[in-house]
Input
Amino acid sequence: MPSQPQQKPIIQLVDVYKEYRVGTTSTMALKRVNFQVFRGQLIAIMGPSGSGKTTLLNMIGLLDRPTKGKIFFDGFDVSRLDDKALANLRNTKLGFVFQTFNLVNRLSVFENIELPLIPRGIPRNVRAKMVLEAITKVGGDESWLQKKPNQLSGGQQQRVAIARAIVGKPVVLLADEPTGNLDRASAKVVVETFLSLNNAGHTIIVVTHDPEVANCMEKIYVIRDGEIVGEFMPNKTESLISKA
Ligand SMILES: Nc1ncnc2c1ncn2[C@@H]1O[C@H](COP(=O)(O)OP(=O)(O)OP(=O)(O)O)[C@@H](O)[C@H]1O
Ligand SMILES: [Mg+2]
Output
């Protein structure tokens, strides 16, 4: 969906700082970050290794709390939530995709995708319908469902992981280096999956090192040393999907 920023962001970071302390060492991984996500957006976050991309994504995804500053979800100050309420908000409103897929190899693809639905007490027949819908949305095949994740290719496994991330109909999908472990052809399929989900209305944020992946998104933010240093329009001629 072409992004049509509405007045109220779905996620907003205001003057966010994140400090990590290990023993006597302190790292300021985010320094006064201001960032907004609007419904329907397709955003890339780029930056060198150690610049704070994962830390930023963890803040946006409510996986961790800022040292200083505020995070608003749909206008609500999430610092007012205790850990349990925060986890509940995260589990129902956000979906996560990781570089290493994070699928459970002893479970079938079906069981992997339905995992986020189990704690919600959704009946089995409804879960089955939702799983089928999710696997279809990522361009997957019904025949994958009874397989184990390691019986699929890397690109197929990542699409299963995306299906798991969207099965609960999250408001925002967050991906950290989702193509980092994939060859170019599989990376392209995964990027096309994000584009098709975005067309269907999903809000998506992708952290990537890969300029050809970032150039497939609608907007690119660059982070360096914990600070957002720029906001760029993608160069579509240098994007993964423009290449044969
Ligand atoms: N749990 C942690 N404890 C201590 N320091 C951390 C922790 N997580 C990250 N850091 C530090 O914070 C900074 C930002 O790390 P972050 O993982 O956000 O970078 P990144 O941009 O995602 O890097 P990469 O591209 O390598 O994944 C780095 O200096 C890192 O060493
Ligand atoms: Mg990282």
About this structure: The chain has one domain: 40-63+87-242. The beta strands are 11-22, 25-37, 42-46, 68-73, 76-77, 94-98, 172-176, 203-207, 219-224, 227-232.
